[in-house]
Task: structure prediction
Amino acid sequence: MDSSILYGDQAYELEALYDQYLNDPSSVGDDWARFFASLSNGHSATQVNGATRTGGLAGERRKAQAVQQLVLEYRRQGYLASHLDPLGLTSPDHSRLDLSVYGLGEKDLNESFESGIASMGAKPLRDIINRYEAIYCGSVGCEHFYIRNKEERAWLQERIESENFIAPLDKYTRLRLFEKVYQAEHFERFLATKYVGKKRFSLEGGESLIPLLDTAIEHGGETGLEGMVIGMAHRGRLNVLANVLEKPAGIIFAEFDENYNPDTLDYADVKYHLGHSNRKMTRSGKEVALSLLFNPSHLEAVNPVVMGSVRARQRVNRDPDRKKYLPVLIHGDAAFIGQGVVAESLNFMNLKGYRLGGTLHIIVNNQIGFTTLPSESRSTAFATDLAKGFQIPIFHVNGDDPEAVFRVARLCMDYRNKFGKDAIIDLICYRKLGHNENDEPAFTQPRMYETIRKHPSVATSYEDQLRNSDGASDEEIQFIKNGINEGLEHSFQKAKEENTRMQVDTMRGVWSGYDRGDLDSEPETRLLAEQMERVGQALTTVPEGFNLHKKLQRLIDLRSKMLSGEQPVDWGMAEAMAFGSILENGHDIRMSGQDVRRGTFSHRHAVFVDTENESDWTPLNGISDSQGILEIHNSPLSEYSVLGYEYGYSLSDPNALVVWEAQFGDFVNGAQIIIDQFISSSEVKWYRMSGLVMLLPHGYEGQGPEHSSARLERFLQLCAKSNIYVANCTTPAQYFHLLRRQMLSTVRRPLIVMTPKSLLRHPSATSSMEDLGKGVFEELPSAASRRMPSRSMVR
Result:
């Protein structure tokens, strides 16, 4: 039932549909048939919201239509009347739901109408309003009416309006919710008592984040989820580490005390940037692998990194349906609307090369950004309005209502599982303290913080609710509290008494077998003749019936001559041979960037397009049955998010060659945050290695200041402690050996390559097939002899 045509500007559609019903009731669908059956006889529809009437419906029929318009308004904008702000600083707007707007009044409340809910049927208007108020105007505000897909919209409406969605929760679930909010609250208070004045970026005021994540994990485990990768900023991070990923509290205390053995681990970053991985057993007996990625202070920068990491895990763990591994991104309200990388990352949702089967977004909306109010930081009513254009359902929920949080978390997990799309939970809460624990927020928000000082905590109010509703006994509640209190105290004392050993957990699983490397070792990169032949055969054999562009047939012919030695090898051929040999060795290759399938300079042509039907042919995927797979994707027009995505992919699949190419090297500065905060520094900060390759077209060739320089000097300045490789090759053979070296080594470090432009086809910058079959990558002799720590490589 598409209720949008109940609006006056589309009343003619309603008349047409009604005429269709009169001719054949079975032709309009069950929902509309029930609606029209509830009307008296008549032949025209009307708009009752103050507009011109389009016909003369009888009074009863006008009332029935008015009720349907009221129902529609609850579904469409009931969230504006929801009780979402736990502080009560913003008032719900009921103006759109006033009966008088629809020509209804008190006298109509006892009259029966079709409710619009199949399980409810016809009921007095009073009961209908009460039901819709409970559904749409309580602690949850639902935004989904803008979604164009009717199946999605109908599914969401059915779930939201079902009895189950608002039914009372069982005792075990309510006790679990209390346990998690108390766990979150007591952890913060414990740290505040034991480490006075230390920065921890408290979660206080937003403690419902912990039961939200717990619910997502538990419900996900019941529906086939095997892994969850979380990205979040510093706010509440220690709490999530302790109470969701179950990082031992003693280790967190040791980090505060700096009482640990630095020989086993010494991260070069603050404790509220660190990550952790663990495996958690759910109530249903399913194990879910949890990872919280390390990240810097740059808000939202980790988003594409998480997404790329999940894409790699889905590939490595054979999850083509993308249901087993879930990205969870935890945002701040000011950052969600303020940081452009958020929109860039949302754009990945439906793109073939980047889709993940849906991301769960959680906005910890504490209604302030440091000292900046929403009215100063956004031009939209809600921080989430940005997501509507991506057709993502949004659920605003009052953070003081853990049961509403529980319901919404399960709904979003089910929606993602069914439709493979993102969902957003806007957890509206508050920040009890300042931006950090030493900040005084009352300087800039005195009234808000006067309210906050008087406001009971989530755990306190929910405990009172359980006691008053006979949801739990005093003994049950106290048992939970005692267990949490005693556990933290025991861990604290143990951390004080012992020198904690903290082991690096980043070199396990797919990373076992890799190491930080012997800088003096060089892998054998030459290619045997029989390998050249197999790769060359795949590159030059056009499938039967494939309609190749006539100019590209000349390219195939030229490559055949390169293989036979009749023509020298150019850069495109050297790259193709390197890629093919890596694939033949069983490694996957993932490459992305703007226009990379063809290549900005039309030199690559890794994918050919049939001139008749536009089907694809990727020659390098036809070498052998046992080879790796080449994925090459033209990216969105973005550097920041796409480079972050590929970096994240490289974190979770070191066995794949992951390549990002800039359209021109000059544009790489659009991704400078990823380069500075992740690529160049992740190993020393977090013990996270990456084999990402960055190809940056570089060369002063009269193209102006924005198409000339990849800023080689900037990358050289970033070199320290053997953190990255920077290379500028002058022959195709050197480029060939460099790419093979990157994969054949047991070390994974980022490789930044200054690639040519005019030299791509220059007759003086060529190699022979023989050069590919012998030798290794040749460093600058002086650098090789001194083994420079920066590992800059130039020839």
